[in-house]
Amino acid sequence: MARTPSNMLPLGTKAPDFELLDTVSDETLSLQKIKGEKGTVVLFICNHCPFVIHVNPEISKLGKEYQAKGINFVAISSNDVENYPQDAPHLMKEKAQEMDYTFPYLYDETQEVAKAYDAACTPDFYLFDGDSKLVYRGQLDDSRPGNGLPLTGSDLRNAMDALLEGKIIDPNQKPSIGCNIKWIGN
After folding, report:
1. pLDDT tens string for the chain (186 positions)?
2. Residue 186 lies in a domain
3. Edge-to-edge strands of the sheet including 124-129?
4. What's the DSSP call for residue 142?
5. How far apart are CA 88 and CA 84, in angstroms?
6. What CATH number should be reported for the domain holding residue 144?
């Protein structure tokens, strides 16, 4: 299992807009349509990565908890499905239902959205404020498959709580670690 870190898009970056297929509803959704009033978490995930499988329960839990507070979530898979068929859209829909995601799970077939966000790994987390400016990017928490640390979502949770409370979010943020995005042609 490869251990690829986040590229750490510069804080303050405006969220790149997109229009992608939601594998759950079969609708094309834009960032403008699904962004939250107080903030938006954009996360790059996939079905097969052991790092994503490890954090899935916490992702689902955080989505439910923070959507009720005005921070919407949107998950995106950008993997090459020809070489990684387990990440195909129909299986993404199954995964979203299995994990009880309360947020869209979008398919980035061209990989242009992943490139626009400078996403590198799965999972890769981005928190944007109500003005769509990047205030946090990096890891969910210190838990990784097999390291024995509890899954808490503490890093992302602390950033979302600070955003909701109007507090400064610590700019010293740890990159996420996960499987590299499976780029087409690589």
Report:
1. 568 889 999 999 999 999 999 999 999 999 999 999 999 999 999 999 999 999 999 999 999 999 999 999 999 999 999 999 999 999 999 999 999 999 999 999 999 999 999 999 999 999 999 999 999 999 999 999 999 999 999 999 999 999 999 999 999 999 999 999 999 987
2. no
3. 28-30, 19-22, 105-107, 71-77, 39-44, 124-129, 134-138
4. S
5. 8
6. 3.40.30.10
Cα angle value 52/53/55 (rounded, 5°): 65
Residue 21 lies in a domain: yes
Q: Report which of 111, 138, 108 is spatially closest to residue 125, judged by C-alpha positions.
A: 138
Is residue 131, in this structure, part of any structural domain at all? yes
Q: Are strands 19-22 and 105-107 parallel, antiparallel or unpaired?
A: antiparallel
Which residue in 183, 182, 115, 123 sits closest to 153, CA to CA? 123
3-state secondary structure 94-124: HHHHHCCCCCCEEECCCCHHHHHCCCCEECE
Range of the domain at 76: 4-180
User: Residue 185: inside a domain, yes or no?
Assistant: no
Look up tokens 């919407």; give the residue: 72
pLDDT at 1: 52
How many independent structural domains does the chain possess?
1
Residue with tokens 């490890």: 54
